[in-house]
Amino acid sequence: MAKRLNLAAPSLIAACALALACVAPLRAVAAEPAVAAEVGSIQQAARQGADIFANDRFGGAATCETCHANGGRTAGKLPNGKEIPSLAGAAAAFPRFVAKRQTVVTLSQQIARCIAGGVQGTPPAFGSPEMVDLETYITSLSKGAVMGQQFN
């Protein structure tokens, strides 16, 4: 019986190695985004995003409106007093290249960065209903803005 187990062990090891080889490439693929919550319209998603923008602290000490006044529609101020522009048209500037970090940043990455840094909270997961609503709201502030200027 010991001989039989010794013969089975290499087969089991080979089967496990084959299974891992087949699964390993799947791990390199990005995870599926969270399933988005159902909404009745893009306007509803923008309204939900505006509510999150105004009220959610993301576990931190502030909200997005702490710095971005009037829902981001007008210029705001950072806690250090530095003025920041309104978010009107901001979504049209993404994706954009950030030379200091030598990387391209998407709108959702910028939102996450702002929440982590400015709000000092935990950003919603990429693709989550909350992140989609925030992106939709901020993009709604760019209605009429010319897209793609960063590519000129």
Strand order of the largest sheet: 1-2
The CATH architecture name of the domain at 42-143 reads Orthogonal Bundle
Global outline? globular
Question: Could you state the CATH homologous superfamily of the domain at 42-143?
Answer: Cytochrome c-like domain
Q: Biggest sheet, in brief? A: 2 strands, antiparallel
Q: What is the CATH T-level topology of the domain at 42-143?
A: Cytochrome Bc1 Complex, Chain D, domain 2
Number of strands: 4
* Overall average pLDDT: 82
Q: How many angstroms separate the termini?
A: 74 Å
Low-confidence stretches: 1-33
What integer value in Å does the Rg equal?
A: 23 Å
Helix percent reads 40-55%
CATH C-level class of the domain at 42-143: Mainly Alpha
Percent of residues in beta strands: 5-15%
In N-to-C order, the SSE pattern is HHEEEEHH
Alpha plus pi helix count: 4
The class by helix and strand makeup works out as mainly alpha
Task: Please characterize this protein's 3D structure.
By secondary structure, the protein is mainly alpha-helical. The chain has a domain at 42-143: Cytochrome Bc1 Complex, Chain D, domain 2 (Orthogonal Bundle), CATH 1.10.760.10. It is 43% helix and 7% strand. The chain contains four helices and four strands; from the N terminus they run ααββββαα. The chain has helices spanning 2-28, 42-55, 107-119, 129-140; strands at 76-77, 83-84, 96-98, 103-105. The strands form two sheets. It has a two-stranded antiparallel ribbon. A two-stranded antiparallel ribbon has the order 3-4. The longest helix is centred in the first third of the chain and has 27 residues, at 2-28. The model is unreliable at 1-33 (pLDDT under 50).
